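2024-03-11 09:14:02 INFO queue: dequeued item DUF350 domain-containing protein, len=143
2024-03-11 09:14:02 INFO validating residues
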Amino acid sequence: MDGEIGAFVEAFPRFLIWTTSAGLMLLVASTIYVLLTPWKELALVKGGNASAGLALAGAITGLAIPIASTLASSVSLLDLLIWGVIALLLQLIVYRLVDVVLRDLPRRIEDDQAGAAIVLIAAKLSSALILAAGLWDPALQRF
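2024-03-11 09:14:37 INFO prediction written
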């Protein structure tokens, strides 16, 4: 039993630091995303716009997936930070690509067009899953 307790005592501070860092990274990346998109997600959500809520949920989840994957595979906090920044950049690029394809995505979201929000969510989650899978290192045989 001393082995398990010793392992816990040794690992718990690292767990707290890394998990807190990943959570803060998600918060910062989500905030930056909200500030850089042309519509005001939170105001629209507070006003009852479901499409804005869906689009924001897709963005946050799309950021969380690669950050979680990086948390599981990083060898340093700097590694975690670098891939978190890449996840944010990828989400902004995906937003722009969907905007090009659907034409005037901000207006569509503001007009509560669920179809546009659903396509945006699918693009964000798909790209996040691909990025997360790309973070897997077969040489280490782990995520």
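2024-03-11 09:14:37 INFO annotate: Residues 2-134 form one domain.
2024-03-11 09:14:38 INFO item closed
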